[in-house]
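Researcher: Quick test of sequence recovery. Tokens follow.
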């Protein structure tokens, strides 16, 4: 049996959730992300804001220049994650396998449940209606024979759209004269390479397959396949242990040169990484440090370890990496673990770590909390649940920066 895949994509998800919860925001240009006086980018925006040319990942100051009368809000990720879990509850009802791309987007394999495209059409319409009735949100849905075609279909009639691409011929007829950027995985840099070689449309990709492969190698072969509508990938259910890494990063509102502050922020980021890893029972066999300097130069440093998931261990390894980098004004700092596993390879279990008050790691953790409380006058240990939140972490670090 050929695949039948549904792609569901929420419409301006963060903004739609905020407008649902505060109807006075409806019909207005709403921009979710940083505030205009802060560093940062647009996370998403309402369709009214998009009329001003605003889009996700745009610098927030450019967004403000285009739309000074817009409404700007920080994202509330805890709220969006809760809504996302409700969405997954609806979507999973109809799928044999669900692959979540983000909080607001998923591929659903409905081959067995739907049997035919008529059945898939009914499932898609039910998903749209339940999402609206139960959560007060709209979504765009594509029904197709492959993941790429389903994604293309869901984007075809946004917002609140529905579209079908039943076979390769239909996909090719739809895409043949569109820009190469309409093909999955073609971003700005890849498009520039293709344009320079005179390859501008999907038709050009078909007619110049050898040139595309010469330019792009493995990706080029993939694009030539896509240009003919060929995509045999399966819907792969997401498993936390399949993630490549767990990390957390933070952008300062002003560049920072104070090493003590930077290391204290690394400690808070390490706590956040530990919190997320523990939720999924993951351990890392490597630690990473990410830095963006004031001149926007990015560097990443990493170190292999035996097994690492405790905040104090992540922090100490990250500090060692930090001590080896050039000391210049820093705009962004991040910490993480990689090479993930569900197996803990040390003899000392996490339960032992929690239950033994004389354990060195636990003592070091408390010492770090105490030192930071003396420096900033904040009870970090007593408010960890709040610090794990994106917005509280940012506010806390900004307070620390101003009082360091």
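Model:
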């Amino acid at each position: 049996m050929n695949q039948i895949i549904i792609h569901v994509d929420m419409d301006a998800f963060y903004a739609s959730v905020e407008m649902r919860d505060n109807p006075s925001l409806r019909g207005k240009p709403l921009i979710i992300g940083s505030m205009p006086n802060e560093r940062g980018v647009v996370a998403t925006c309402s369709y009214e804001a998009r009329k001003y040319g605003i889009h996700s990942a745009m610098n927030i100051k450019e967004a403000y220049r285009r739309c000074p009368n817009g409404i700007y809000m920080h994202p509330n990720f805890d709220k969006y994650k809760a809504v996302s879990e409700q969405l997954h509850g609806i979507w999973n009802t109809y799928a044999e396998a669900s692959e979540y791309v983000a909080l607001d987007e998923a591929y659903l394999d409905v081959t067995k449940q739907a049997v035919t495209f008529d059945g898939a059409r009914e499932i898609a319409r039910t998903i749209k209606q339940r999402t609206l009735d139960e959560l007060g949100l709209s979504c765009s849905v594509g029904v197709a024979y492959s993941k790429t075609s389903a994604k293309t279909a869901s984007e075809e009639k946004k917002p609140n759209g529905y579209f079908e691409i039943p076979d390769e011929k239909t996909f090719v007829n739809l895409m043949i004269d569109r820009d190469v950027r309409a093909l999955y995985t073609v971003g700005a840099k890849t498009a520039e390479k293709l344009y320079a070689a005179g390859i501008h449309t999907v038709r050009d990709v078909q007619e110049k397959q050898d040139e595309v492969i010469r330019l792009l190698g493995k990706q080029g072969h993939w694009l030539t396949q896509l240009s003919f509508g060929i995509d045999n990938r399966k819907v792969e259910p997401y498993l936390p242990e399949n993630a490549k890494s767990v990390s957390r990063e933070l952008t300062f509102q002003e560049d920072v040169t104070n090493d003590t502050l930077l290391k204290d922020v690394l400690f808070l980021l390490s706590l956040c990484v530990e919190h997320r890893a523990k939720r999924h029972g993951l351990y890392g066999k490597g630690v990473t440090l990410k830095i963006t300097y004031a001149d926007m130069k990015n560097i990443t440093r990493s170190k292999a370890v035996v097994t690492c998931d405790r905040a104090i261990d992540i922090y100490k390894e990250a500090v060692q990496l930090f001590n080896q980098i050039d000391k210049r004004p820093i705009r962004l700092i991040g910490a993480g673990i990689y090479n993930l596993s569900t197996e803990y390879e040390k003899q000392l279990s996490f339960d032992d770590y929690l239950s033994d008050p004389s354990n060195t790691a636990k003592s070091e953790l408390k010492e770090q909390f105490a030192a930071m409380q003396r420096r900033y006058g904040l009870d970090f240990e007593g408010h960890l649940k709040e610090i794990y939140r994106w917005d509280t972490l940012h506010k806390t670090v900004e307070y620390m920066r101003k009082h360091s």
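The chain has 18 helices and twelve strands.
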